[in-house]
Amino acid sequence: MNEPIFVIPLWADLIAVGLGGIQGALFASGFRGERRLDLLGVAIIGIVVGMGGGLIRDLLLNVTPTTLQSNWYLLTATLAALLGMLLAGLFQRLNALILGLDALVIGLFGAFGTSKALVLGLPVVPAVFVGVCAAVGGGILRDMIMGLPVAIMHVGSLYAVAAGAGCLVLATAHGLGANVVVAAIIGIVVTTVIRLLAVIFDISLPEQRALYRRKVAVETTAIPIIKP
Questions:
Q1: How many CB atoms lie within 10 A of CB 89?
Q2: Looking at the predicted structure, is the pLDDT value of residue 216 above 50?
Q3: Cβ(104)–Cβ(195) under 8 Å?
Q4: Model confidence at 2: pLDDT above 80
Q5: What is the model's pTM?
Q6: How many alpha carbons lie under 13 Å from residue 138 in its C-beta half-sphere?
Q7: How far apart are CA 26 and CA 87, in angstroms?
Q8: Looking at residues 141-149, what average pLDDT do you find?
Q9: Are 31 and 37 in contact, with CB atoms under 8 Å apart?
Q10: CA nearest 103: which of 67, 157, 150?
Q11: Which DSSP symbol is given to 158?
């Protein structure tokens, strides 16, 4: 049997890879002291963030990884990481830029992952799952390589929830008859806006707020720590 073919436009995929590479390099460049990375380390993190989402997406879909079928992906991720290092040297306060790129990258990879899964015939729920994994995959790999707590596993600002919401809206719009490109654009916007609003207004789930309050209480000795 011939598998249905879905091709993400090269320019769109490269934009996502490039933005991911810049965001990853900016993130890695911000560490000081013992966690400070050299130029090679920053470049590797940028490449991992730029290419990680696409690799995870295609592995879950059991198709040949698109990022390994062209020279442009690795070249784009590498050049983007180098650009990210340059920006890190030019700007002292990069939090707003990193946040904006992070939100957009999540939206792009989530939309591409869900769209590809839907066109390949996956049901809505698995398609959304693939999209979310693609959206957060680069960040997970980044945190694991750097020895940091994985962002989506700890208290955060609706990191995976934003991706899931955007992917679900995309799948719903497509199911209602919208063109997959239009649905993808809507999904990207939804994810990006939710992620930005969650961080700007410090919105989190009730369980996350409870965990955060306990963490603060422990760190300020408001809750005694019983040692064996």
A1: 9
A2: no
A3: no
A4: no
A5: 0.81
A6: 37
A7: 7
A8: 87
A9: yes
A10: 157
A11: S
User: What span, in angstroms and rounded, lies between the C-alpha atoms of 145 and 120?
Assistant: 31
- Is 222 in a helix, a strand, or coil? coil
Return the top range by mean pLDDT from 6-10, 67-71, 127-131.
Answer: 127-131
pLDDT in tens, 89-107: 666 566 677 778 888 999 9
**Integer Cα distance of 20 and 67 in angstroms:** 13
Distance CA 195, CA 218 (A): 28
Residue 128 token pair: 């959304």
Quote the mean pLDDT of the chain: 82
Q: What is the DSSP letter of 220?
A: T
Distance, in Å, from the CA atom of 6 to the CA atom of 96, rounded to the nearest integer, reads 34
Q: Phi-psi bin for 9: left (phi > 0), alpha (psi -120 to 50), beta?
A: beta
Residue 142, token pair as written in the block: 């980044």
Alpha-carbon gap, residue 50 to 78, rounded angstroms: 9
Contacts of residues 219-227 at CB distance under 8 Å and 24 or more positions apart, as own/partner, are none
